[in-house]
Recover the amino acids of this structure.
């Protein structure tokens, strides 16, 4: 870890920083005057003959923007290619350079008329942000001397401040920094997988709320140290709790990793390093951020994977420290921003809803699967999502521009002009395509051979209701009642719930709405409701299990549903039923509420249908009994699949292991549909399978005739239905099952391609 502890430290620069602060926060001056003042302060305070700032233009040219000591006529006239001369060398190699005599350096490039004939010593540091070089800050002297480490460190600290000024666009626009046409691009294209289609451009926001640093320079070093020490103590205490709890379950290697992590948190080396930066006059958060920037530089250079892992631990620790420094106003810095793209390792559904308040446009994840609830919410919000983008959170800086291409499963960081032009063209094409699709949408959900498929919407948010009035849509097949709960600040009382459910019924007009009672727990956390920490939350205290243990919650919800459906049809289903006795218990609570409503002379619902989510495999073995107890079934393929294969739907490591079109799952679905068809009860598939054209095709071929679909997938599902001859595809699928074709998916895809079915 020594390399870490030896990070450069500025030792004594508070005076320079104080003077810089006066300039930056003082009377309104032009950006040019600002740069001139900065170079003058540096030259005077560091007692050097020359100080210059070069800024990268168009990704290839380093242009002299300000100088103290060189010929002022050379400003904006002197331009060096990236990599040319000593300044170009600093930019290209992305590291400081210190020389006692420039003229004997191999890369020395003499520039006519600039006035550096007799200058010998040189120190230059890159001005960088988020791994991109924005320019070079250099000092020079007539005497031959080697500048001290401390002097270079002061330059690095100031370069960080300059990077913020340049990135803010006040000196030159960001587009001017980026490469122009015909020049090698500085934009970064990264591949991932799409979890929701769509195309957006926006400003990156790291999901470490608080890392957007507003104050770079401190007012009082002593106070700043106190703030920092307090934040460190709080971080260490919270980590101790966190690790203490995990230690109870950790074993072997896991345990030693946690121990090492705890040791790092206590390690004085890196904390000392940050404290020294604070002593130079940086604000505590800027000092932590500077440490992070150095860390990322090390990370990029190191080939050693063990070292990289440890550096990532430090990245995590420093993020925690930033949290403690900026306090609890975690999302405050997003107020008033236009179009943000959230970048996260992973994200809970409630956290995404939190960002929804700040007009989130797109989401980029390092981990995350399409059946995870965060993806479901993103679809409901119509936010494009690209997942499994390796180390994106380390590559991006808050405020960077980013394109999220959910159609191609690709991300572009700091797009150049060419990327932006292509983006705009794609947006137009997309819009036209959707206009055509949407025009067709209302036409029909009838197959080529005349079979009508009943299509419903999965709804949780207002945006999901988009197509509800279309003739081809039969109603709301799944209303996830927990979503409005997740958006609320406090637990919604009966009156609030009644209003919410009433609004949904009103929006659906006379079409049926299938209300699912609260499915909280798992990855759906209500911030205001304390739940015990489950080791396996997906299989833990969740959904109906909470409802039966805390009947007051279930009773209030059922009361609100009964009130909202007064005089109308009410369909209620219970989630995560694993045994019929749970359904019977839940049904008793529903009857109790109905009785109370009757006693209080409320107008009862005109009709009542009660069903369950079929999503726990144990219930499949009680199907006949179940069918005699319910009016309908809703098949939750997301959970049924994860419990069938014991494969956590949120775990991205499992993505290539299991597939809903594996023969065993297909056979399970076939078993279910055959059994249900023998009864006169209805079944609708509402899991994500129904929203994926190829999987929905398999469902129809197996015999399912009712699907409940995410609104963003509805056009694609309808198109697939309009393209098929159901009898033929059913025959084909039955045959695949009969001959036990393990490569079911590939066979079905080939069939769809051969028969011009849009999938
Ligand atoms: C399911 O499990 O398939 C389902 C629709 O419920 P949810 O995704 O909300 O768990
Ligand atoms: Mg479910």
């Amino acid at each position: 870890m020594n390399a870490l502890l030896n990070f450069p430290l500025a030792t004594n620069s508070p005076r320079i920083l104080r003077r810089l602060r006066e300039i930056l926060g003082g009377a309104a001056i032009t950006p040019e005057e600002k740069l001139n003042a900065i170079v003058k302060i540096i030259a005077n305070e560091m007692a050097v003959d020359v100080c210059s700032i070069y800024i990268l233009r168009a990704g290839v040219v380093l242009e002299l923007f300000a100088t103290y000591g060189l010929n002022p006529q050379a400003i904006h006239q002197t331009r060096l290619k990236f990599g040319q001369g000593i300044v170009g060398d600093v930019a290209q190699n992305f590291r400081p350079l210190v020389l006692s005599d420039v003229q004997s350096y191999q890369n020395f490039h003499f520039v006519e008329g600039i006035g550096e004939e007799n200058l010998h010593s040189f120190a230059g540091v890159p001005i960088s942000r988020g791994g991109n070089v924005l320019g070079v800050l250099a000092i020079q002297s007539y005497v031959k001397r080697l500048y001290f480490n401390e002097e270079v460190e002061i330059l690095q600290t100031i370069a960080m401040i300059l990077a913020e000024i340049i990135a803010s666009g006040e000196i030159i626009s960001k587009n001017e920094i980026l490469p122009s046409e015909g020049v090698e691009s500085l934009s970064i294209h990264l591949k991932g997988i799409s979890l929701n289609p769509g195309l957006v451009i926006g400003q990156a926001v790291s999901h470490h709320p608080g890392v957007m640093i507003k104050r770079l320079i401190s007012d009082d070093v002593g106070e700043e140290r106190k703030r920092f020490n307090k934040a460190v103590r709080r971080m260490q205490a919270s980590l101790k709790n966190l690790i203490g709890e995990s230690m109870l379950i950790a074993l072997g290697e896991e345990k030693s990793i946690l121990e090492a992590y705890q040791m790092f948190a206590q390690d004085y080396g890196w904390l000392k390093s940050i404290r020294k930066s604070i002593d130079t006059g940086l604000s505590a958060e800027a000092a932590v951020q500077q440490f992070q920037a150095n860390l990322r530089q090390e990370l990029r250079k190191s080939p050693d994977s063990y070292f990289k892992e440890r550096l990532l631990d430090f990245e995590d620790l420093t993020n925690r420290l930033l949290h403690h420094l900026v306090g609890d106003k975690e999302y405050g810095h997003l107020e008033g921003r236009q179009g943000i793209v959230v970048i996260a390792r992973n994200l809970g559904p409630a956290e995404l809803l939190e960002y929804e308040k700040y007009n989130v446009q797109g989401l980029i994840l390092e981990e995350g699967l399409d059946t995870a609830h965060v993806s479901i919410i993103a679809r409901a919000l119509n936010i494009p999502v690209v997942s499994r983008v390796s180390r994106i959170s380390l590559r991006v800086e808050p405020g960077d521009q980013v394109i999220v291409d959910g159609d191609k499963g690709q991300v572009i960081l700091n797009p150049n002009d060419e990327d932006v032009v292509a983006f705009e063209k794609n947006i137009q094409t997309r819009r036209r395509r959707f206009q055509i699709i949407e025009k067709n949408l209302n036409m029909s959900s009838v197959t080529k051979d005349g079979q009508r498929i009943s299509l419903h919407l999965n709804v949780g948010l207002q945006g999901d209701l988009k197509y509800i009035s279309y003739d081809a849509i039969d109603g709301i097949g799944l209303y996830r009642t927990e979503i409005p709960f997740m958006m609320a600040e406090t637990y919604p009382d009966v009156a609030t719930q009644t209003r919410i459910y009433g609004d949904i019924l009103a929006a659906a007009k006379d079409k049926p709405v299938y209300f699912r009672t609260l499915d909280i727990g798992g990855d759906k956390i209500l911030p205001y409701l304390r739940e015990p920490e489950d080791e396996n939350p997906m299989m833990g205290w969740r959904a109906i299990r909470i409802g039966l243990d805390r009947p007051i919650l279930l009773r209030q919800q059922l009361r609100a549903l009964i009130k909202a459906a007064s005089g109308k049809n009410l369909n209620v289903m219970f989630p995560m039923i694993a045994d019929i006795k749970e359904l019977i218990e839940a049904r008793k609570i529903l009857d109790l509420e109905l009785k109370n409503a009757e006693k209080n002379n409320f107008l009862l619902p005109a009709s009542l249908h009660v069903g369950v989510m079929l999503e726990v495999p144990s219930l499949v073995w009680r199907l006949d009994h179940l069918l005699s107890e319910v009016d309908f079934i809703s098949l939750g393929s997301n959970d049924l699949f994860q419990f069938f294969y014991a494969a956590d739907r949120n775990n991205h490591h499992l993505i290539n292991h299991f597939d809903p079109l594996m023969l065993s799952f297909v056979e399970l679905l076939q078993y279910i549909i055959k059994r249900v068809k023998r009864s006169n009860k209805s079944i609708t598939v509402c899991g994500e399978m129904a929203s994926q054209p190829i999987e929905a095709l398999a469902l129809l071929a197996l015999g399912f005739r009712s699907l409940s679909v995410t609104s963003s997938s509805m056009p694609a599902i309808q198109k697939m239905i309009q393209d098929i001859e159901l009898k033929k595809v059913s025959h084909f699928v039955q045959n695949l099952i009969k001959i036990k074709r393990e490569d079911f998916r590939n066979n079905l895809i080939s069939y769809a391609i051969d028969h011009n079915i849009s999938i």
